[in-house]
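Hello Y.,

Per our agreement to keep a running log of every chain we model this quarter, I'm adding this entry. I've kept the format consistent with earlier entries: sequence first, then predicted structure.
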Amino acid sequence: MKVKWNNLKLLLFWLAVLTLFAFKVDARKRLKIGLHKNPEPIEENVRNELKTLSIKHKLKVDNATSSKSHTKDSGSKLVKLENLYNTEYYTTIKIGNPPQAFKVLIDTGSANLWVLSSKCPETVKPCANQVKYNSSASTTYKAINKAFTIEYGADSNDGIIALSGFESQDTVNIAGYTIQNQVFSEITDAPDTAFLKSKFVGIFGLGFSGISINGITPPFYNLWTQGLIKKPVFSMYLNRNGTSAVSGGELILGGIDSGLYSGCLTYVPVSTAGYWQFTMPSATVNDFNFCENCEAILDVGTSLIVVPENVLSTINQILGVLNPKDKKSVFLVNCSRISELPDIIFTIARREFRLKSFDYVLRYGDTCVSGFSSMKGNTLLILGEIFLGVYYTVYDIFYKLIGLAPAVH
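Predicted structure for the entry above:
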């Protein structure tokens, strides 16, 4: 099964795709949401977001702070995340000996690890002036040289685009854990449209092995099988403070941190082990149920909430979007009416998970954009970072379970 890779995390909604940073602290401050001006034209950002969504799924188409004590599972480690405009969450990993550092996107919608290669010529624009992995500088490198390609579909005019390179093997360090003999991919060719504005130079996939290209064992599986973590579980907390290189969020490898959520975790079984996919009994806005026993996925890397095409027009009508026929799918709402907009209620495992209007309306100064969109041919309900910023999520690859609880901000 081809990876529906998350590459440059969606909604490049203001800048582009990125990476994260491994770092551990005991007491951590939580930044509340602030309003940040979008540094790029809104329509361009939303267009880019939708294009990366179609690529991924092969479809056409300073603030107040609070603190809380933490109870993190023993044997787990914290990966500190950076956040760019609430749309890109990333970290730094190290590959080889001596270690070479790379910023990589954390992606639950793919399962491969790849970075740009020193063998990628400067004539390939996404590789120009970028940090790249140099195998000749690592004493632990082992050559594999098997061809690697990620193909993804664009619209009918663009045809098929591919990101390609070859497989290699080396040590990979994340959060102080050193994975031995990790197979990853060195990228030597990448499409300009996907990467020219990106700050990341790789992707760290956290999806199930079933969607791993070439059957490569994903790095998280190796963290478990090599005994580096005690539990085959990771969890995610996304801060919605706009932009922060220090407090963008947290990825806990090997467990959970009860200080990052309130109440109890609600668990739901994975319905198809590829994406983190589950069956959702219902999702409603006002009295309109736009998901009845539908298939949904949690996608760290997708910024928006993506609904099936046939329900978007009704949601837009309920939200009173100002331009419902916009061909670029940038749906504007009246900023003065945000407080009047209804809650969105997602029912998961018999519990209600609500989004308030200020959660799902993206505000850039005096411009407000609905966080709902669709892609032609898509039938999944994709819960991106708009949802994941409100709820702490847990991912268990052994028991194939997803856990959710309100995040503490």
